[in-house]
Structure formats: C-alpha cells, structure tokens
Amino acid sequence: MKKLFTLALFTIATCPACLAQTTKEYPKPEPMRPGMSEYWTPQPKVVEPGDIKLATAPSDAIVLFDGKDLSAWMNPNGSAAEWTVKNGVMTVDKSKGDIVTRQKFGSFQLHLEWCVPKGITGESQARGNSGVFLQDMYEVQILDCFGNETYVNGMTGSIYKQTPPLVNVMRKPGEWNVYDIIYTAPVFKEDGTYLYKPFVTVIQNGVVLQNHTEIQGTTEYIGFPRTVKHGEGPIRLQSHGDPSQPISFRNIWIRPL
Ligand code: MG
User: Of 17-26, 38-47, 140-149, 218-227, which gets the smallest average pLDDT?
Assistant: First the structure.
C-alpha cells in the first residue's frame, strides 16, 4: 500500500501534463461595460398611432393615480412619495428618486399614460428616460423615441437590454402616450431558478410592441439578465438620472389577474 502511494506521488511529480493542468492560466472574462449589451440595428419601423380616447378605469380596477394625490405610492423606503401633482398630472421629481406602489401584485393588466414635455432636450437614453418596473424587477422602458435613436433594446417599449419593441409608435413631445401592459408573473423552483419565466405583452397607443414576450431575467444596465427569486412585488416608476426635463404620468390603474 505504501509502495502504491509513493508510486502515485512520483507519477504526479514527474508527469508534465498533470503539472500543466494544475498551473495553466486561462484568460478571465472581460469586465462588462454598458455598451456590451446594447445593439442599434435594425431600428424598428416608425408607425403613426391612431386616435384613441381616454381609457378611464373599469369598475374592477385598482386606481393607482386618478389625478388627485400619490396615496397609492411611496418611496422604496416606505416614506410618502413626493413627486409633483398638479392639474391632474404627476411629474417625476428627479431629486426624490423612484416611487413604488404601496400594494404588491402578481400577474396583472396595467394601464398608464405618460407624456414627454414639449421642448425636451438631450439624446439617446438622456432624453425623457423613465420606466415601469413590473413586480419591481423587470423594466419596460419609457423614453422619448420620437426622432431620437438609441440602442434598440433600450427603446420605448423594450424589455430593457433584452427585447426591442416591434415598432416605434411614439407620439411627439407634449402629447400623451398610452401603455397597456399585460403581465404574467414567473413561477420559481425551490432552488431559486425559473420553472416558468415571466411573460409580457406591451401595447402603446393601441399598437402591440411586445407580443407575449418571455422576460429572460432582471433588466440590468450592466451585464446580462439575472435570475432572482421573488414573490409579489410593487410597480416601480423610474426617476432616471439623466439631465433632461422630467416626464409626467396620468390615469394609472391596474387589474390583478
Ligand atoms: Mg428607463
């Protein structure tokens, strides 16, 4: 037995291949940069939206903003939301940060209307950037994409850094855009991986941008989607740090499914 052990040690010590295996250095993955998960072509076709009248909340909806106050919303730390409310409209206050609904949701139908201010400046992602995070995890992008190109998987109606919208149906700054979002929450296995990934359909101004799109994981600014096990979550509206003029929201309601 002792002989065998000595022989094994001798073999490892004198085998060049074995030594190479333990000492060889392989290149490490390059550190992720934002541009590594952005692509710019093909740009979705521009579509002129039809005229759709104001979609007031149906009788079974939970009203999240009716133009009066932010009582359905709070800061992520639980304190009262402080965005500006005026003339039936709420406007992002970039000094206050994101806001989330007080209530948490699973699968839902969400309606919200948003407006990029007339005369907005900036370009690409720094022009009217906001976003709606489904269950506080997955961002459907909001951006002024009227004559403003950016990476296509970061356009309005994209699943951010994942799936571009089918078309570009933006109304011009100063006019109201309408989102209707139908979302199916994911189901997780015990080990924290997806049994079923989340799915989303996004309609802007009556036109389908995402058709039952599978969401790959969290919507990261840097890097690839991650799998993070979660339960019900709030709707989050983004206060983006870009220097352009803040956007506004009105008429927000949700129907849990
Ligand atoms: Mg955004």
Answer: 17-26
Distance 235 CA to ligand 1 centre (A): 14
User: Helices (DSSP H) in 15-97: which residue ranges?
Assistant: 16-23
- The model's confidence at residue 56, banded by pLDDT at 50, 70 and 90, is confident
Burial class for 70, CB neighbours closer than 10 Å (0-12, 13-18, 19+) = middle
128 C-alpha to ligand 1 centroid (Å): 9
CA of 123 to the centre of ligand 1 (A): 14
Q: What is the CATH number of domain 62-256?
A: 2.60.120.560
**Ligand 1 centroid vs 140 CA: distance in angstroms?**
8
Tell me if the pTM is above 0.90. Answer: no
Cα(256)–Cα(233) distance, integer angstroms: 12
CA of 97 to the centre of ligand 1 (A): 12
Using the mean position of ligand 1's atoms as its centre, give its distance from the Cα of residue 237 in Å: 9
pLDDT in tens, 74-107: 999 999 999 999 999 999 999 999 999 999 999 9
> Which of 209, 243, 204 shows the shortest CA–CA distance to 92?
243
CA of 2 to the centre of ligand 1 (A): 67
